[in-house]
Design a protein that fits this description.
Blueprint: E1 3-6, E2 9-12, H1 16-27, E3 33-36, E4 54-55, H2 62-68, H3 74-77, E5 80-81, H4 87-97, H5 104-112, H6 114-124, E6 128-130, E7 140-141, E8 148-150, H7 153-167, E9 171-173, E10 177-183, E11 188-195, E12 198-203, E13 206-209, H8 218-225, E14 233-234, H9 243-251, E15 255-256, E16 262-268, E17 296-298, H10 317-325, E18 332-336, H11 338-341, E19 355-357, H12 360-363, H13 371-384, E20 420-432, E21 435-436, E22 443-445, E23 451-457, H14 474-491
Parallel strand pairs: 1-12, 2-3, 2-13, 3-9, 5-7, 13-23, 14-20
Antiparallel strand pairs: 4-8, 6-8, 10-11, 11-12, 15-21, 16-20, 17-18, 18-20, 19-20, 22-23
The chain binds flavin-adenine dinucleotide (FAD).
Residues 12-18, 36-39, 45-48, 50-54, 177-178, 210-212, 235-237, 239-240, 243-244, 284-285, 430-431, 459-460, 472-475, 478 line the site of flavin-adenine dinucleotide (FAD).
């Protein structure tokens, strides 16, 4: 017989959703709370460890932003241009990018509680700072909705969460893999844990599953995400292998979200599998290739294959990786001239993983393309660019191509200022969209439509998104859902 422990709340996972649920449960009066993190201590924290942790929320006035970043100098704050991002704006973004498929009840719930969730994080002790943008004529222009990220990026946020959780007496256990859920499709009462000391059981009045998506499991990627999804490069934690999700489905949990969908972005073709750590200054990692709207992207046949200027990066990056995956060899090349390079968000030389040449014909063989093919693509593209509309990288400028397929809808400028550069990219997977179904109490719902008593979920293990994702919504969803999951789990009586 495995040894058995008893506690109030078991939280599965050691990422941001798990810490948030555990802390909320403690604040709501739960006694003994045990967090079970599969990763060793040196790699705890799930995907947030690799993340910038930008946070999207709805607000109406600059005063509501000011509350979140009280430490910013008042003179500096007065230079911030902060257009409103209302609940209707946030909901419209969610509906547009998910092609109208997002659950309306859960999306309303997330949006309506987004500002309160970030206030709660601030009150608990998470510190935020403004996104960094270069000033234009002494003013800082922010993209509506994504104004702040946590200090120190994802790792900074995780270290802070851990300090807060330990300070509250929450028991955080590393190298502790949940291998079984005890219960059935009506009631869950505990878990079995595999640890260095062998297997043991923990019973509690509630279990909160915050075990992430299945994106680190190449077999599940191939099974659910479509052709060659097993070849995607992993951007985050290697520990998100989906077994707790499978255990919940095995008990009879209902599914939600897009099971063939995943957040997938263009990343450096040479990036290591398993995540490039985020930069300590809070910027996302340097394996990202997020400047494609300032150039063109071609496949290994030298052809463009998507509209690089469709919309702001925040609304295209999470679906662009899939487009690269579908190309021959699952690689593509982002081509820039000096005008594009000068606009790179992390600066022109944030990475040296490119090839460069004085002409497009000389660039082509460096990426394995025939000079005439790439020259033809670039000349065709340049000929389709019109100067009727002024180029303005700070907004959707409507400066589009004419007469070519696919078009470039915004920011279309000729690629004609040498030297030219090519960056090889592949598809990086961030997190899977398919997961369990929950209600607004964050109870997991079974296939008969009833809540499984004692089982709650939050984070990427919850099915929510379809097709695409507006940037920085994962952290928002975690905070909103985990806070509720923790409070309801704490309030539960057996
Ligand atoms: C590179 C990158 C950049 C990102 N940037 C942003 C951003 O700027 N803004 C934003 O909102 N989102 C961002 N995201 C997404 C965001 O980080 C995730 O959506 C979020 O961290 C998911 O949180 P989670 O706690 O649900 O899952 P995770 O953070 O993945 O945590 C899951 C946890 O469960 C543990 N686990 C898994 N299986 C078991 C088991 N059997 N037993 C015990 N523990 C288990 C894992 O070890 C891990 O600790 C980014 C992600 C990446 C990878």
């Amino acid at each position: 017989m495995a040894r058995e422990e008893v506690c109030d709340i078991v939280v599965i996972g050691g990422g941001s959703a798990a810490f948030e649920a555990a802390v909320a449960a403690r604040q709501a009066g739960a006694g003994k709370i045990v967090m079970l993190e599969k990763a060793p201590e040196s790699e705890f924290g799930g995907n947030a460890r690799y993340s910038h942790t930008g946070f999207r929320f709805a607000y109406d006035t600059p005063d509501e932003i000011r509350e979140i970043i009280p430490d910013v100098d008042e003179d500096l704050f007065q230079t911030f241009h902060l257009p409103p991002y209302t609940r209707d704006d946030f909901l419209a973004d969610l509906n547009r990018v998910t092609q109208g498929r997002i659950d309306p009840v859960l999306s309303d719930f997330m949006v309506d509680n987004s500002l309160d969730a970030i206030r709660w994080m601030r009150d608990v002790g998470i510190v935020f700072e403004p996104e960094q943008h270069p000033p234009i004529n002494g003013k800082y222009y922010f993209e509506p909705g994504i104004i702040v990220h946590s200090v120190g990026g994802g790792l900074g946020q995780l270290l802070r969460w851990r300090e807060i959780a330990l300070g509250m007496g929450i028991d955080v256990r590393y190298d502790s893999r949940v291998v079984e859920l005890h219960g059935n499709d009506r009631h869950v009462e505990g878990v079995r844990v595999s640890s260095d000391d062998g297997e043991y059981d923990i019973r509690g009045r509630a279990v909160i599953a915050c075990s992430g998506g299945f994106q680190a499991n190449s077999e599940m990627r191939a099974r659910y995400l479509g052709p060659n999804a097993d070849l995607m490069r992993l951007r985050g934690s290697v520990y998100d292998t989906g077994e707790v999700l499978n255990m919940m489905l095995g008990l009879g949990a209902a599914t939600a979200g897009h099971w063939q969908g995943a957040h997938a972005t263009p990343i450096d073709a040479g990036a290591r599998d398993g995540g490039t750590p985020a930069r300590a200054d809070g910027h996302s990692n340097t394996a990202n290739r997020y400047d494609y709207m300032f150039g063109i992207t071609v496949n290994s046949a030298g052809r463009r294959f998507f509209d690089e200027g469709e919309a702001n990066l925040s609304y295209t990056y999470a679906k662009t990786g899939r487009r690269v995956l579908a190309q021959p060899g699952s690689v593509a090349y982002q081509i820039f001239d000096q005008q594009g390079i000068r606009l790179f968000r992390l600066g022109p030389d944030y990475t040296d993983t490119y090839v460069e040449a004085p002409t497009i014909a000389e660039l082509a063989p460096k990426i394995g393309l025939h000079p005439e093919v790439l020259t033809h693509t670039v000349e065709n593209f340049n000929a389709a660019v019109s100067d009727d509309v002024a180029f303005d990288p700070s907004r959707l400028d409507g400066r589009s191509t004419a007469g070519i397929e696919p078009p470039k809808t915004n920011w279309a400028t000729r690629i004609d200022e040498p030297p030219f550069r090519a960056y090889a990219v592949t598809c990086g997977v961030t997190f899977s969209f398919g997961g369990v179904r929950v209600n607004t109490a964050m109870e997991v719902i079974n296939t008969s439509g009833r809540a499984i008593q004692g089982l709650y979920a939050s984070g990427d293990v919850v099915g929510l998104f379809f097709h695409n994702y507006p940037s920085c919504t994962g952290q928002t969803r975690n905070a909103v859902f985990s806070r509720v999951a923790g409070e309801n789990a704490a309030a539960r009586n057996n």
